[in-house]
Amino acid sequence: MIVYKFGGASVKNSDGIRNLSKIVSEANAPICVVVSAMGKTTNALECVVRTLFDGKASEAYELLNSTVIVPHLATARQLGLDTQKLENEIDNLKDSFQMVSHGHGQLYDKVYDCIVSYGEVLSTRIVADYLQLAGNDAHWLDMRKLLRTDSTFREANVVIRDSQQLLLNAIADEPHNIYVLQGFIGANSQGNPTTLGREGSDYTAALVGNMTDAESVTIWKDVPGILNADPRVMKDAVLIPELTYYDAVELAYSGAQVIHPKTIRPLENKSIPLYVKPFMEPDAKGSVIAGTKKCRIEVPVVIRRNNLTLITIRPLDFAFVMEESLPNIFSVLKQHHLKVSIIQSSAVTISIAVDNSSHIEEAIEFLRASYRVSYNQGLTLLTIRQTNKEIERRLKPETQIMIEQRTRNTVKFLYRTLQDTKE
Question: Please, are residues 414 and 353 in contact by the beta-carbon 8 Å criterion?
């Protein structure tokens, strides 16, 4: 078994799906094809949910129809597909929308997962139908029935043992050359849809690779592979042909956009190589992440992470003990799904930079019950691994630096990009 994962950019239109079909058709069977939602569908469905919770049900439905339903039907027809299976899923989406729109007091995150999960359901219906139309022995699988998770909506944790048994049984019961699966989504034991966090389709592909003991996993992107910097930041960015699992995790948690942070562990556990290749140039070498010691990054790696919030926590009185406070603080951050990028502390102050999210104001208010809290929004974190004086001279921020941290070969600058400090 091999696993291919295609992101939203690679299936954003009919040409992209034809290209996917060509790549998959040339692969050695059997193969699991994990697919994200088409283009910006996830963003569109998020907007639908927000509008619905603003009490604008009719406006939300109009958005659902114009930004999701109509474009998917149009793509299917451009591909010459019989749209019956797709229309059945659209009817299910409409039913789910009507059900949650008439509910009262429902949890936002639960409704989010119920509606947003349909992005992958619709895209995979189109991909599977087109692969079959192109003469492939392809079969659609519903990961809401196969990927068992807990009930942490929007950040669900996968129950590996149960999921593996369900997936392997589904494959054994329906032998085919190609299986088309949704990334990003699963369901809890009650059958409620869950999602694995934004960009979670990479993680799904890694889990499928682990559970099927795959020979390899390949993530098809709109970039040549893993570069040492965003070309928009460094025009002379170069391809990194090989990385270790350790290096990949470091880059992902620093903010590199190519690989989802949780992707590496399931692959490292079984020494499964991960390839990152350009879907428009499938014969290109790309990058490989593996466990060999010879994979060493020799060039500076530059990662820029935008839209961070720096939370500064101080005691209400001087009974403050750092060691006793840290577990409580990090428990609050975890409960509110905030991802930590950098930490700095003194005897009586802890500063933590986290990704901005809809939960951040709630987390800050929770912390204020025990601490004095101020925060700065709109910050950027620049991380340079394998740093040197020349690269720092070129890239060191000229605006106010809030935190600067150094280790033997890495420097981090957290700096202000917007003037927005709140007490």
Answer: yes
